UniProtKB/TrEMBL annotation:
Pathway: Lipid metabolism; fatty acid biosynthesis. It holds the Pfam family adh_short_C2. This is Enoyl-[acyl-carrier-protein] reductase [NADH]. It catalyses: a 2,3-saturated acyl-[ACP] + NAD(+) = a (2E)-enoyl-[ACP] + NADH + H(+). It comes from Mesorhizobium marinum. Transmembrane segments: none annotated. Its EC number is 1.3.1.9. GO terms for molecular function: enoyl-[acyl-carrier-protein] reductase (NADH) activity. InterPro entries: Enoyl-ACP_Rdtase_NADH (IPR014358), NAD(P)-bd_dom_sf (IPR036291), SDR_fam (IPR002347). Keywords: Fatty acid biosynthesis, Fatty acid metabolism, Lipid biosynthesis, Lipid metabolism, NAD, Oxidoreductase. Belongs to the short-chain dehydrogenases/reductases (SDR) family. FabI subfamily. Gene3D superfamilies: Enoyl acyl carrier protein reductase, NAD(P)-binding Rossmann-like Domain.
Length: 264
């Protein structure tokens, strides 16, 4: 165990199970000495997250549905009352109706467009606004995004539009909170098999395409995303804010893959 997060306390939102990216991040932070609080969405997830939170000795496990502002308020109020302040926030939350994560983007319904935006984009801004006053000694926040925000990924559709908004939010929040020494960044992770990932049609094909065509010729793990999150939430990255940091085996730099048989 290292010391990078010794004495730091923070909130991890978006762990559903031990495959979640949020769980990969939580384990890395805890191994470096961080004290963690977790939120969960609804009782069914709560039952799965409880033993995970206990494993890392988390003193708080709080319900939170980000569609409900009062539920967000209650989480940050509880943290303020118990801890007085926090040092970091992890937002690893995303949702869209899986019936619209296939077919044409053009067919996205108004109702699901709004719901996807609220949960996958706006909730980060709302949580950041609640977290910032608790970061009296400065702090760091991260969210999770995907390259479908800037380039077309089959079936990612409205989630790509929400992630584009989320990435723009990161830049605006970094500007808002920079003077308070609060840094705001995002990790753009490559495809990983998780509950949310499985909702995207043909996600297996996306994974194997990245495996074959990224510079590292493989996908990434939640442990690797956790390592980059540790960097962005610790003092190692004290000069970094407003950044979209890719953890995707380098896939985002590729236009046409360099085929082995054509190498000279
Ligand atoms: P996951 O299913 O393990 O986590 C998604 C989390 O979002 C769950 O814990 C779920 O409870 C939470 N959530 C959804 N709606 C919510 C609501 N209304 N209120 C509160 N919480 C809610 O999947 P994951 O892949 O670990 O997803 C975490 C983040 O990483 C998401 O933002 C996702 O878009 C992003 N991401 C995932 C991948 C991937 O391939 N898995 C790639 C890049 C980015």
């Amino acid at each position: 165990m290292g010391q990078l997060m010794q004495g730091k306390r923070g909130l991890v939102m978006g762990v559903a199970n031990d495959h979640s990216i949020g769980w990969g991040i939580a384990q890395k932070l805890s191994a470096e000495g961080a004290t963690l609080a977790f939120t969960y969405q609804g009782e069914a997830f709560g039952r799965r997250v409880k033993p995970l939170a206990e494993k890392l000795g988390a003193p708080f496990l709080l319900p939170c549905d980000v569609e409900d502002s009062a539920s967000i308020d209650a989480v940050f109020e509880a943290l303020g009352n118990e801890w007085g302040g926090i040092d970091f926030l992890v937002h690893a939350i995303g949702f869209s109706d899986k019936n619209e994560l296939k077919g044409l983007y053009a067919d996205t319904s108004r109702e699901n467009f709004i719901r996807t935006m609220v949960i996958s984009c706006y909730s980060f801004t709302e949580c950041a606004r609640k977290a910032a006053p608790l970061m009296t000694g400065g702090g760091a926040m991260i969210t999770l995004t995907y390259a479908g925000s800037v380039r077309i990924m089959p079936n990612y559709n409205v989630m790509g539009v929400a992630k584009a908004g989320l990435e723009a939010s990161v830049r605006y929040l970094a500007s808002d909170y920079g003077p308070k020494n609060i840094r705001v960044n995002a990790i753009s992770a490559g495809p990983i098999r998780t509950l949310a990932g499985a909702g995207i049609a043909d996600s297996r094909q996306m994974l194997s395409y990245q495996q074959r065509n990224s510079p590292l010729r493989r996908t990434v793990t939640i442990d690797e995303v956790g390592g980059s999150a540790l960097y962005l939430l610790s003092d190692l990255s004290s000069g970094v804010t407003g950044e979209i940091h890719y953890v995707d085996s380098g896939y985002h730099i590729v236009s046409m893959p360099v085929l082995e048989e054509l190498r000279r």
